[in-house]
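re: that chain from earlier
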Amino acid sequence: MLVLRRKISEGIIIGDNVKIRILDIEHGDVKIGIEAPKEVRILREELYKEIASANVEAKDFNISRAKELFGKGEKNGDNE
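^ sequence. v structure.
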């Protein structure tokens, strides 16, 4: 991991097309700005982890068990 110190208005360039700039520091919070092409996906780490977890759960989804639980769309055993 590369660790850098930056002050307000200083930046970091990643590759040829991603720029990160420190916009503000207040009460221990750092506000950053990110300039990147639209095709570059930028996610907060906690959101990324939540999405990854949901994807794992979806992969392990058992459709047969769901059909058992929900009666293949039938209500109270009636075939409507």
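Residues 11-71 form one domain.
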